[in-house]
Amino acid sequence: MDDVESNLGGGQYTEHDETTVPEIRKIQELLRSCRIYDNAVRGGTAQQVRDFETARQIDEQLF
């Protein structure tokens, strides 16, 4: 049952949320967010916002 609850919460790649590599923790945080690009637009850097706008123009069906 713990595995099911973990998956519903976004899942973890390591036991008990213990990560020794900061990059893995950042990836996990991004995966937990509803939409990575949505978060970039709300609180991202100017570059992230431009990247989102470019991606949206390339294929509007993605967003």
Automatic annotation (TrEMBL):
Residues 1-20 are annotated as: Disordered. This is Uncharacterized protein. It comes from Pisolithus microcarpus 441.
